[in-house]
Amino acid sequence: MQRFILHWGDMGAKWGVNRSVAQIHALLHIAPDPMTAEEISETLNLARSNVSTALKELQGWKIVQSRRQLGDRRDHFTSVRDMFDLVTIVIEGRREREFAPTIEALNAVQAEAATDGTPENVRKRIDDTLSTMQMFDNWYTDMANLNRSVHVAMLKLGSRIVKFLPKGNKKSKQTDKGS
């Protein structure tokens, strides 16, 4: 349990998440029962204020929920248990906070660059960047709308899907912008 929590904390730091936030999530993810903030604080030897702040952040990500228990005034916290749901929530959250605003900003930059005298080669680079990001976002949106059973089947198929795709040099530049 300790190694899992420590590793999740280290990975959280690499993902841009505070180490203690990631450790609290790890603890709640593997804990068999919901935990109070006091229990989390004692288990991880973290300040109670740090735990409260981290729990609010995790709830903002929608990967931790609080529940009340009969006869207890304290909140009891648990993580999303289903790993598929957890990954889906994290990916969608990152898309909404990071990827979608970048596409929105690039659309504005592209529109401004079309009229402000930005050199053609710079406008082309902006266009290419936006086009590629939009292609990935469209792909993600299409994939996200599929049923879980389709996602699972695709994941199980894994790299074997390559044999159904046209062969080609992965380093060659793609010229078909519509695919």
From TrEMBL:
Q: Which family does it belong to?
A: Belongs to the GbsR family.
Asked if the keyword Lipid metabolism belongs to this entry, the reply reads no
Assigned keywords, A-Z: DNA-binding, Transcription, Transcription regulation
Q: By what name is this protein known?
A: HTH-type transcriptional regulator
Under Gene Ontology molecular function, one entry of this record is: DNA-binding transcription factor activity
Tell whether Chaperone is among the UniProt keywords.
no
Specify the HTH marR-type domain's residue ranges: 16-74
The record's Pfam families line, in alphabetical order, gives: MarR_2
Give start-end of the signal peptide: none
Organism per entry? Aliishimia ponticola
Superkingdom, natural source: Bacteria
